[in-house]
Each structure stands twice: as structure tokens, then as C-alpha cells.
Amino acid sequence: MTWDTAIAKGTYKKRQRKKVLLETGIVIAIAFLLAAIIPLILPTFRLNLLGRFLSLAIVALGIDLIWGYTGLLSLGHGIFFGLGGYAFAMHLNLQLPEGQIPSFFSLYGVQELPWFWQPFHSFPFSIVAIFLIPSIVAGLFGYLLFKNRIRGVYFSIVTQAALLVFYNFFNGQQKLINGTNGLKTSTTNLFGTYQVGSDSVQLVFYIITVIAVALAYAFCRWLIGGQFGRLLIAIRDDENRVLFSGYNPTGFKVLVFAISGGLAGIAGALYTVQSGIITPQSSMEIAFSIEMVIWVAVGGRGTLVGAILGTLLVRFAQTFLSEQFPEIWLFFQGALFLIVVTVLPNGIIGWLRQDGIFYLRRWLGMDKYLATYPQIEANPEVQQEREETVEDSHQEKP
User: Fold this and answer.
1) How far apart are the C-alpha atoms of 319 and 316, rounded to whole Å?
2) Alpha carbons 36 and 22: distance in angstroms, whole number
3) Under a CB-based contact definition with an 8 Å cutoff, are residues 90 and 340 in contact?
4) What's the rounded Cα separation, in Å, for the pair 206 and 46?
């Protein structure tokens, strides 16, 4: 390594370190604003909505990993979202006096708690299960798909078909998980004492959600900032070249799909406790999983900030439009998606990076002066050279 190369490498590392510190500071500042200031401003209902939307931003981060950075469009993330939600809802429904089981079992003649409910008595197991169960399911599912080199549109179709299978399965299990009625959490007690639906507990869950979003963002940023992230992008851009370079893309795709599924599970658990109930209709419907993709597309895929921004924008727009135009608000959502696809193919963040900064600087009057070459006739050096040429030609004449 030459001296110049070493200096350039050191300068690059310093810039990267400064960039990371700046980004960390911004994330901490936003998290502090959301956790400490916003609860003082917003009423309880709006704060609860914001908490739900922030929890959905976590699943959007996971979809951005698998779609934006790896190029695999999953239309079945509702599976992992629902699994995480059910895992925590089962724990909350077991916060009963010893010997009792959730009341819905008696409606179907079930006298003993099913075996797979037993581990959810434990709070630590439930917390781990929120991430681990969706990750394992996503990892196994991804292994079967990627080992058989299923990708592109076929991957999207298969994930959506799997979602439909899970949706029908959960709907049909009335005796085991209350089927279409789902599991209610708002009337349950956390640690057997604190009612989940009370304002104070909901505020705690909101703050936990803010922290979870910040940690999920930091984790994803760390993940894509190194060699692993560069490999994901390489798989997205040209998987065959990655294969011929000596890497096996299957393992990396399985891992990122499992991580993405785990993030969806965390999002599902946080969303469930803030919405008060989880059902197959609220978590595993096909439209809901497609909507997750729309959040990332609107914000800008391949940009983690875009995933969060898109989720919040679309969800707040849905809330506002459904309140103002309850009959036709779905048309607005469709129009928004069409605008993004046709006019902003890289989403809002992509547009800001390409053209938005330029227009913003022009609008603020901060345009840099263009360093163009002056008119050639007005250039004194050209004039001098021209005069010297003319003088030389006169001297050469007899």
C-alpha cells in the first residue's frame, strides 16, 4: 500500500466515522422527541395511532432489507407479522389465576390448555418467541425457496400463496386460537397486574415502540453498512456474478429473509398490544401484506429512512382521508401508488437524493454559481493569442 493510498483510506474512514456519529445523533434526537415531547402534545387517541404506525415501520424496515437491498419482493410478510402478534397475545391471555384457562376455550368444549400454549406462561420465552418463531419459519421457508432457485415474480407469488395458507389455517382453528375472533389483549393484564388497555400501560408500550424502531433502524444500518450489505446489493444487481465469484447466495438470502421475518414478528407484537386484538383478518390478509410493500415503495426502497417515512406518510394519509372521505379514500391510496410508480420510481427519498436537493436549493436561493467557461470572445488570453498571431503574420510578410 502506497503512502497516498494509506492517507486516502484514513481520510475515508474519518469521513465515515463522522457520518455515523452524525446519523446516530439525529436518530437519538428524533427518538427523544418522539418519546419525551410528543406524548405531551398529542391526545391519547392520536398517540396510540402514532405508536401503531411506528410499530408498522419496523416491518417496513424488514421488507426494505429483503426487497430494497436484496431484490426479493415478498408479498407474504403478514405471516411473520401475525406470528409475532399471536405469540405475545397468547402470553397476555394466560395471565390468569392458577388453574384457569382463557375463557374462549370453554365455548368449544376445551378443558385443558393445549400443549403449545404451555411455554407462553413464561414472559422471557414469549419475548424471545416474538422474534425467534417468525425468524425460524421465514428461514425454513426461505431455504426451501432459495435452494430451488425460486426468485423474481415466482418468489412473490409463492410467498403470497403461503400467506393465504396461513390465513385460512388460523381462521379455521377455533378450538386452538379462537379462529376468526382472534385473541383480545386490551382486557388482559401484564404481569398479572397492569391492564394492557389502560392509558398508562399504552404509554409505556408507545415508548418501547419508539426505542424498538430506533434499535431496528440501527441494526439494519449496521447490517447493510458492511460486507454483508454489499453482498445483498450484489445479489440484487447480478446474482449470477455473485455465484461465479465464489459466494453462495442461498445462505445470505435465507439469513436476510429470516431477519426480515423476525423484525416483522416484533412489529406484530407491538402493533397487537396497541390495537388491543389480533385476528387473521387484521394481520394476515393479502391486502395488508401488499400495503406493506406500498409503504416501502412510497418512501423509497433501498433507503431505510424511506421505509419509515413511507409507512408514516401512507398511514397518516389513510387516517386523514378515511376521516374526511370515508367512501372514496381507497381511490386516493391507489392514486398515490400510481403516482409513485410512474413519477417517483425511487420513492420520496430517491427523488430527494436525485433532484429534490437541487430544487430545494434553488427554491431557497442557495444555488451555487456555475463555473462555466466565459464567452470565448471575451477571454483576454484568447484575445492576446489572437493579436500575437496577427502580428506574427504581418512580420512574416515581405
Assistant:
1) 5
2) 21
3) no
4) 11
pTM, two decimal places = 0.84
CA–CA dist 282, 273 (Å, integer): 13
Cβ atoms of 293 and 305 within 8 Å: the answer is no
Whether 397 shows a pLDDT value over 60: the answer reads: no
pLDDT value, residue 56: 95
Q: Residue 374: is its pLDDT beyond 60?
A: no
More confident call, 246 vs 70 = 70
Mean pLDDT, rounded, of the chain: 86
Q: Are 79 and 322 in contact (CB under 8 A)?
A: no
pLDDT at 398: 54
Contacts of residue 130, defined as CB under 8 A and 6 or more positions apart, other chains included, come to 84, 87, 88, 265, 266, 268, 269
Placement of cell 506574427 in the chain: 392
Q: How many other C-beta atoms lie within 10 A of the C-beta of residue 229?
A: 18
Q: How far apart are CA 304 and CA 296, in angstroms?
A: 9
| CA distances, 356 to each of 54, 360, 366, 371, 375 (Å) | 25, 6, 13, 21, 31
Beta bridge partners of 189: 195
Displacement of CA 271 from its chain's centroid (Å): 14
Residue ranges with strand state E in the chain: 183-184, 189-190, 194-195, 277-278
- With cell 401484564, the residue in question is 190
Q: Which helix (H) or strand (E) holds 129?
A: helix 123-147
